[in-house]
Each structure stands twice: as structure tokens, then as C-alpha cells.
Amino acid sequence: MNVPAQLHPSDDFVKCIRWSFIAHVILLGLMVLRAAFYPSESIVVQRAIRVDMVGLPEKSQVVSPIPEQASKTKSAEKPTEKAELKPTQVAKKALPEVKNIDSQKLDLRKTKSAEEDALKRLEAFKKLAEMSKASAQNNQAKAAPPAPPIRGDVLAAGAAIGGLNKIDYDSYLEKLDEKVKSNWNLPRLLKNQNLAATIVVYIDGNGNILKKEVKKSSGNSVFDEKCVESVVRSAPFDPPPLKLSNILAVDGIELGFPE
Amino acid sequence: MIMNTIKDKPSTSSKKLNQHCANYAAFLSVGLVIFFVSVMNAPIAHADSPIHLNVGDATFKKSLLAIPSFQYLGTPGLNKNYISIGKEIYDTLQFDLSVSSYFDLLKREAFLEDVSKVGLRPVPDDPSGFSFSSWQQIKADFLIRAGYKILNDELTLEAYLYYVPQQKKVLAKTYKGRIKDARIIAHSFANDIVKELTGIKGFFLSKIVTSKSTEPQQREIFVMDWDGANMHAVTHHHSIANSPAWSPDGKSVGYRNFTFHAAEKIRNADLFFYNLEKDERKLISARPGINSGVSFFPDGRHIALTMTRGESPNIYKMTIDGKSFDALTSSTKDVLNVEPSVSPDGKKIAFSSDRNGRPMVYVMNADGSNVARLTIAGEYNSCPKWSPDGKKIVFAGSDKGHFDLFVMDADGTNMVRLTSARKTTNGKMADNEDPSFSPDGRHVLFTSNRDGHHQLYIVDVDGENERRISFDKADYYKPSWSPYLD
Fold this sequence. Notes:
The complex is a heterodimer of chains A (259) and B (486). Chain A has helices at residues 2-7, 11-37, 56-63, 66-77, 79-85, 90-142, 152-155, 163-182, 221-234, 242-250; strands at residues 44-45, 185-187, 197-203, 209-216, 253-257. Chain A is mainly alpha-helical. Chain A has a three-stranded antiparallel β-sheet with strand order 4-3-5, with helices on both faces. By secondary structure, chain B is α+β, with helices and mostly antiparallel strands. Chain B folds into two domains: 6-27 and 206-481, Neuraminidase, CATH 2.120.10; 53-198, 3-Layer(aba) Sandwich (Rossmann fold), CATH 3.40.50. The N and C termini of chain B lie far apart (114 Å). The chains are: A mainly alpha (259), B alpha+beta (486).
């Protein structure tokens, strides 16, 4: 007898659904209002930096002479009084200076060895990459049916930017950023004037510039001109990845000079 | 009864269900609100806010500048010297702008247009004017066109600066003066160009005061334009005058001279002021021993200097009339505290001292408290001078038997070597000493013996663009660049 009662929902249940519906409508309204009054911030794509945790402490010791100097300043101040009282000790007091110079030479050696280490590390990375390539080829040879190449971008045609797509897009945008940066020269006359401008560039599927506009002027026509010039000089860009090409052609890409 | 109970049961269970639903709906809606609010707070690329990239800092280049010959607009017959006067204006302007290190000058051979046949203004304004396209073709960024005329003793310069890529006139001005003011007119035009293009005041009307050897064992104080022109002696002690410094208003210089005191029959290092406007000398301090190394406080009412007063040299703060003083350092015998340099805000004093064995650069508060050592490296660091913005200190340092100039931040960090030169005479490393900042802080004046004698040189604060500005067989000591004088 319970079964039919549950199958036919009571008035209470309908009420419950209605409340749920009202709550959703209110929520939707809130979202619309929020989107209208507080537009979200745009994505800021910055270069990913690979940090080698092994190299850091070593270098910071070499690079920062400030704490070293500060501590030496203190220790160096005190013996003065003695040196003034006993002239015979002056020669001894000069020793720390020599040590300082020695330690600086050592530092030089350290930086040199650090450089060498870095070079060696680079070589090691290269070799590792080669090794992994070779092993990958070996694995492919061993596997009976060769695995089809992974095509993340094609598979995820409708999905959000993420995974392999994101890596693909990031590397494309990074390249584009590098290219524009390499072409961005300013006259020395504009140094230390704290000027900033934003340029929007629209790029077609072949990497050519469709359109460019100054979105936020610096107020200095020469500065704006140099910003646009750096973009024009960087074209044509590489053809953008499939999904990104739509965004670049329709919405364009904002370039902040300097940010 | 059974039916009733059976009937009752569903009603109670539906009530429970109702409560569940209400709870569920409330939970769901709260959850959704939290979810969406948090999602909307995350940055999402909208259609109206495209992807944003930061390009970062630009690399800076010098601008290409074309300065074709100046046209003579007057009647050639009236003044025989019109060619040499025009050349003086031209050369002065060209030297100013090349030292500024904002510009690379285009060579005359690259010019496509014969400027003697076209006007000073461009074609649409002046039908017989010059055309921008011939300057755009050789990639000039800026073009200076000027003409001058001489009428009796009056010299008039009509000058224009154009920004070639935008075909725009940046500056148009007429300068008038006497014939002997030709250099001042050129410097004024250069100042206007730099001010217009950078917003920073040009230093081209500033001066240099220096000690210079006149005879063996004799040095006098000389004043000259910053580019070495118009050099003239302001002292005639026939003794050794040295260590000159500018007062903050640029109207006086302070210096020390070994003066013969007839009563005691001794030579003493006395401190003098010389007023350049009134041509007037004043003895400030003749206390026994050294009264030297003057540096003015920005208030114009106090100086810092080194005095021995029969003991080891220490640094003192003295009133400008020389009447009262306070000791800022108090080292005992055999320790030097010398070469004070008052910071532009008057709050700190940089100086050199060998209190720890070797002469090093130190800094202290203007009342002598809070002494801190700034340099560790090297064997002999001396002659510290502040940059006009108070952010940097330049000094002469020796580490391998010769002196070079170094610039560091005012806290002693980020030390950079500015100079390194070999002597043309014997190939050994030359001494580069006695630095002094330009009024805009972008250049450093110094002496170098790379060509045999200690001559005056200028280098950019980044170590580039070295230039010699004195050309004689004398030796220069302790040059000091004036503040802005205009």
C-alpha cells in the first residue's frame, strides 16, 4: 500500500519542487546581475618558469653579498678601537681585508663553477631527452600494434582549454609574446617616464594580422606608435592552434606594454 | 481501523518526504549559490575580455638624429666671421646632443637632400621647404633645421626640431644674443631639445670647477663650461690650490690653498670661498693644520670639511661664515677621516676613512651618528660623491695598483666599474680618479692619466660613451661639476 502513495507525489512534494524552482530562478537572477555589474577579470597569461631547486641555495649564496657585507661591517667596526690603541695590531687587522678579497676571488671561482655546473646540467638534460626518445622508440618497436599518436586537441574539440590544449596554447602565446618583446624597442628619450599602453591584435588562421588597435593609449603618440610597430614587425606569427585561432580572430589578443 | 492506520501512514510518510524535500531544496540552493559565486570569482575568459599578455620591459635604443648644416640667413658681406660663428654654434650643439647619449648622429654623407637649397620648414608650410620623405628614407628619427643671421653685434638663431616618422614639428624657437654668446645660444637650444623630449632638464649650461697645474708645484682653481670651453683661472695664489666645491646656488666655490702665514712663517692649508658673481675672495677657516675638502649642505648655511687642528684629520660641520663648528668624527692618532660629501638632502655624509686598516668609503648621519661601512672590496677606496638624486654614490677605487671609478647604490650594493683604460704612453693601466656627477645624474666627470697627463673626461653613468674634454699638457685635480645654473 505504501508504493502507490510514493509514486503519486503529494501536494507537499509539488510545493517542495516549486520552492526549489523559485530558489533556482533567484540564483540565476543573482548570477545575471553579478555578471552585469562585476565583469570578471581577464586572463593574464604569463610565462611559466621552471625552477631548479637544487641550484638555488648555492647561487643565492654567491649572488647576495649584502648580508655578508653587513655582517662584516659590524665585525669590522669593532676591532678599530683596538687598532687605534695598539698600532702593532694594525697589520693583523688588515688581514680580514685580505680575507675579504680572497673570499671574493673564491666567489668568482664559485660563480665559474656554478656556470660550469649549469652547463653540465644542461648537457645532462639533453642526454636525458635523447635517452627518453630512444627508449620511447624502443618501446614502440616492442609493442605489437604501434599506438596511435595522441591528439588531445582534436579529441577535446568542444571542451574548455585544459590539459594538452592548454600546453599547446600556452606555448603558442609564449612564443608570440617573446616575438613581440624581441621587437619592442623604445628611444632612450622615453626611459623612466612610466608610460603604459594596451594594444589589441586580431590574428587569422595563418598567423597574419587582421586588425590592430590601441585599446588604452599611453598619452604619448611616439610610445603608442612604437608599441604598434613592435607588433607589426613581429608578424606574420605562426599559425595558431585550431581552437585558439577562433579566439584570436574574433576576440583578438591584448598585449600590455609593459603589462 | 486498519484502513485508517494504513491511510494515516502514507500521510505521515509524505510529510516526512516534504520535510526532506524542503531541507534538500534549502541545502541545494545554498550549495549552488556558494558554487556559482566561487566559480564566478575565478577569472574566466569572457568574449569581451580577450587573452592578455604582458610584453614586459622594452630595450632602449638611441634615436637617429640628422643635423644638416645651418643656413646663413643674413647678408654675407656684413660680417666676415659668419662662417666660423655658424660652425661654433653647430659644433657646440652637436657635442651637447652626442654627449647626452640619447642620439646617434647620422653622417652627412647619408643625407639625400641638399639643405642649402631648401627652406627650414617642410614642404606644405613652405613651398620651397624640405621634404620629410628624404629624411624618412634614411630612417632619421629627428631632424634639426636651423638658420642664423648676424646684424652688427646681434646674433639670431632660428631653430626647429622635427620628429620625422610622424612628420611633426616638436620645437620651433628663435634665440637672440651677442656674437660672443654663440655657445650659450647653442647650449640653450640643446637644453630645450632635451627638456622637450624627455621632460628632464638639460645640463648644457652647467660649469666645472677644477684645480689645475700652472707651473711645477703650483695649482690654481679654474672654472669652465661643462664641455671644457671658456676656461679661466679664478685664483692667483701662486701656491697649491685644490679640492674645489660648488655652493648649492652655484654662485660660489670653496677651495683650500696652502697659504703662507707671514707672522708664524708657515704654510697652512686654509679654506677660502670665491664668489664668482662678485669676483670676491673670502678666508673662511685658517685653523692650524688642514682646512680642506669642503662640501656644502643644501641649506646653504653649513659646510662639512676636514680639519686636523694639530691632531689626526677628522670631519667637522661648520657654519658658512667659518666661525663655529662641531666634530662629526673623533678618531685619535694616525686614523684618517677625510673627503666628506654631503648628500643632496643634507641628511647623510659619505666619507673615506682608514679606521679599519685600508681607506674605505663610509657613510654617517649628518650629526656624525650611525657610521656604516659601504665598501669592502679593493685596497684603497676614496673620494665618494653623491648622485643628485641621492640614490647612488660614485668613488675612485684601487684593487690592482691603479684607480678606477665605481658607482654603487647609496647602501653599498650593486657596485659597477665605470672605467678601465690603458695608458697610450706605456700600455700600463691608467688611473681614473676624482669623480663628480653631472646635474642630471646621467654622467660622471673625472680625471684620467691615460694620455700621459691627468686630463678631464666624461663618462655615462653606465660606463659607456667616454669623452675627453680638456686638451692641454697640464694636470687637473678634483674637478667638480656644478649644479644647474640656469
